[in-house]
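User: Good morning. I'm curious how protoporphyrin IX containing FE would be positioned relative to this chain. Could you predict the structure with it bound?
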Amino acid sequence: EKSECVSLSPMREAVPTPSKCERVCVFGTGDLGRSLGLRLLQAGYGVVFGSRRPHSSSFLPHGAQVLGHAAAAQSAHLIFIAVQREHYDFLVPLANQLKGKVLVDLSNNQRKNQYPEANAEYLQSLVTGAEVVKGFNTLSAWSLQNGPSDANRQVYICGESVEAKQAVIAVATKLGLSALDRGFLSVARELEDFPLQLFPQWRLPLRIAIGLSAAFFFYLLIRDIIYAYVTQGKDISFRIMVSLANKVCPIVSLIMLSLCYLPGVLASFLQLYRGTKYRRFPDWLDRWMLCRKQLGLLALGFAFLHVLYTLIIPIRYYVRFKSTERTVSVIRENRTSEFDTMTAWRSDSYLSLGILGFGLYVLLGITSLPSVSNALSWREFSFVQSKLGHLTLLLCTAHTYLYGWNRFLSSSTYKWYTPPGYMLCLVLPSVVLLLKLLLITPCRTHTDTHKITPSVGWLPF
Ligand code: HEM
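Assistant: Good morning! Here's the predicted structure, ligand included:
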């Protein structure tokens, strides 16, 4: 067996020799295995790679030893299995050498439910004499090579044996990672699904955003453009690009902003109704509250688009054409147009409220970023997210009410008996603000309700 040992280090003296430091073994010489080996060497471990062809394994980190699988397994107590599940069979004949060893299963799958049982459980069934620990599978070769950043310092492990898990946690700590014990090996399946998730908290908010945008786009297309074509034979389809977009964006933004605050007020009412805050919320409410930050950030994105679309209104060909035409007709007909102070007040007020609302909107977005929210105390954070959050909703809603003003009185507003988009989008924020008003008015039967209000803005605390 000794003849199998090959050292790939050109300068053996420069790295700690395996006899002096704790040895760990890595099975698998792919990207992940090599990167892990390098990190282990840098952390001061002696690393032994187990390979099918120890003599022809190349590109391994300097200082590592390469042995045949059996010899490598015998040389260390902890063995990282950086091999794909389909190749686990080679471990069966090594049952003797693997007895009592700790096997860390790093594997991942291509998709969910690819196999009937978790890879780690399968591994345990193949080598019953070893202690299998699932873990480190959320790390990529790339992050291992570049050193863990704050975001991916956390790794999860699970397994049956407490001692085996402790051995793995010790290695993780030395690598600068923090390992979280998630329990028994039956959790492995969940851990194996982690890397397969694609922006899990963004999925529902994105679906809501796409659904609302599509619904309002078609609604407004029919009301504004198809209506003009059918009733007056006018083709104003060019309006799709800016006018329609500048309606869909703020409408979706306002609805999604109110969806951030609705679960909070619903939860407060639920607590009032139950008379206690020490009971779990229903699952759907929990899930809803957990995606408030993403809902809020997407809503901010739509508001930002609305502001950009609004900024370009004066340079639009259509707008310039119309205003010149109006000026020319006033001159030609020798009319004088009266300045309407009321209209000036109204339009300045709705624009100003929009700007104030947008300013606070941006503040909410910034404070929901982890680096900023971590620097705030809980009180500061809940002040911004809850108090200023509801104020933002109030300002944006008032902006829209003032924009609509008294148009709801005119029958020409209701083309084909349908209300305009801005009226529809006012329903939800008005309900949320009304409910919030009920919660903060002092004349309640429960005088201490403000203490149990869980309604904190965008973040799930
Ligand atoms: C409509 C300006 C921020 C929600 C409008 C309109 C203008 C405007 C000019 C009328 C557009 C048109 O005639 O088609 C601004 C400015 C803002 C701002 C200058 C800030 C810098 C916001 C914010 C919201 C919002 C933060 C909240 C989400 C709305 C809504 C409408 C509207 C719902 C009605 C859209 C429709 O025509 O159906 N805004 N706005 N606005 N704005 Fe804003």
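The mean pLDDT is 88. The pocket of protoporphyrin IX containing FE is lined by residues 243, 246-247, 250-251, 253-254, 257, 303, 306-307, 310, 351, 354-355, 357-358, 361, 396, 399-400, 403, 421-422, 425 (CB under 6 Å).
Let me know if you'd like a different ligand tried.
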